[in-house]
């Protein structure tokens, strides 16, 4: 009897909605981190958002002999946004947002030394596969009610004050990052980033709709 109770406990814990959601958020963060390390960072593809801005900062620092980890740069940029999210929407919303943002930042930096750089000679493949992989990961995070920070927070906070949809607000924020990437890396890489934004967004919607 005791053995059955012990063996059944993990199953009951995993069936609880909050635990299951956090497991999906973790998995989504790992997938997104892998795609970012494999395709986006090495190929200088700034696919919008805080991650795109962190990639720009990473390559600017690297050119000057400074190694600024992308994940930690993302987390530093997210601090103010996370405080804003908790103050505006409460801890229930903020907890999953904080967890998702921290999980993604840690995943990107922890896996960076071990993930191979892919499609280095084929930027279009890097854009397409990077957009698909990160879109799958972020779609899992969103489907579990989580968030990875950045432009997601900005869009969700402003949607009540500005007569635009969340998607439109995210696209506007991403456009600013793409312009910065175009100035730093060149117009071609800005266009690659734009394609990655659309591919990632399409895959996110596909994952969320099942």
Shape: globular
Helix content: over 70%
Which regions have little confidence, pLDDT < 50, spanning 5+ residues?
none
In this structure, how is the largest beta sheet organized? none
Please tell me how large the radius of gyration is: 18 Å
Structural class: mainly alpha
Spell the H/E element sequence: HHHHHHHHH
What is the overall number of helices? 9
Number of strands: 0
- Tell me the span between the first and last alpha carbons: 39 Å
How much of the residues is beta strand, in percent? Answer: under 5%
Overall pLDDT level? 85
Structure description:
It is a single chain. With 210 residues, the protein is mostly helical. 79% of the residues lie in helices and 0% in strands. The protein is built from 9 helices and no strands. The protein has helices at residues 2-15, 17-40, 49-63, 70-89, 91-111, 123-143, 151-158, 166-185, 187-209. Helix 3 runs parallel beside helix 8 (166-185). The termini are far apart.
Summarize the structure.
The protein has 210 residues and is an all-alpha fold. It has 9 helices and no strands. Helix 4 packs antiparallel against helix 5 (91-111).
């Amino acid at each position: 009897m005791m053995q059955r109770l012990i063996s059944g406990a993990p199953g009951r814990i995993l069936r609880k909605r909050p635990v299951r959601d956090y497991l999906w958020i973790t998995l989504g963060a790992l997938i997104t981190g892998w795609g970012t390390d494999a395709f986006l960072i090495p190929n200088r593809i700034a696919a919008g958002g805080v991650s795109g801005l962190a990639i720009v900062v990473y390559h600017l620092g690297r050119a000057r002999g400074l190694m600024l980890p992308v994940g930690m740069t993302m987390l530093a940029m997210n601090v103010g946004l996370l405080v804003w999210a908790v103050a505006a929407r409460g801890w229930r919303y903020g907890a999953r947002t904080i967890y998702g943002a921290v999980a993604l930042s840690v995943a990107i930096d922890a896996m960076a030394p071990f993930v191979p750089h892919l499609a280095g000679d084929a930027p279009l493949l890097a854009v397409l596969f990077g957009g698909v992989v990160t879109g799958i990961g972020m779609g899992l995070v969103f489907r579990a009610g989580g968030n990875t920070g950045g432009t997601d927070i900005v869009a969700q906070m402003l949607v009540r004050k500005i007569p635009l949809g969340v998607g439109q607000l995210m696209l506007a924020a991403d456009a600013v990052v793409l312009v910065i990437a175009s100035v730093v890396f060149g117009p071609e890489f800005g266009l690659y980033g734009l394609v990655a934004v659309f591919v990632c967004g399409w895959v996110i919607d596909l994952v969320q709709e099942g």
